[in-house]
UniProtKB/TrEMBL annotation:
InterPro entries: Flag_assembly_chemotaxis_eff. Keywords: Cell projection, Cilium, Flagellum. This is Flagellar export protein FliJ. It comes from Brevundimonas variabilis.
Length: 136
């Protein structure tokens, strides 16, 4: 493999690995966001149960629900942003992987072409040796 092909493949591998790490980070943040939503849902259920048992808590439930709706809306918005970011990261990873495969293919073709050329030179040398031997 030529030095330039090896360098391109190393750079492409690095880019693919970087994008894979980015995608893993996004997935981790998504998991945390989903856990945040689950906690919010559990909290609201606990407050509703408390409001049923306590009249004073029942009077404050409406204000709590308004605040909860805002927090839930923010959490859902964060998840939507993460969805878009994940889609972009997946597209970038796909493109980087395609580029890596192109470089690997070109490097392999270059190697095979060099091998074919070397075999042709060797065959020509043997043919020439055979002709010289026959001529002697």
């Amino acid at each position: 493999m030529t030095a330039w092909a090896h360098s391109l493949i190393r750079i492409s591998n690095y880019e693919v690995e970087t994008l894979q790490k980015r995608l893993a980070e996004i997935a981790e943040r998504r998991t945390l966001g989903q856990m945040r939503l689950a906690v919010l849902d559990a909290e609201v259920q606990a407050e509703r149960d408390r409001a049923r048992a306590d009249a004073q808590a029942g009077m404050m439930l409406q204000a709590y629900m308004q605040g909860w709706a805002g927090r839930k809306g923010a959490a859902e918005a964060d998840l939507m942003v993460l969805d878009a970011e994940e889609e972009g990261a997946r597209d970038a990873l796909t493109t980087a992987f395609e580029e890596l495969k192109k470089f690997e293919h070109v490097a392999e073709q270059t190697r095979l072409n060099a091998l074919i050329a070397a075999n042709k030179r060797e065959t020509a040398t043997f043919d020439e040796m055979g002709l010289r031997k026959r001529a002697s």
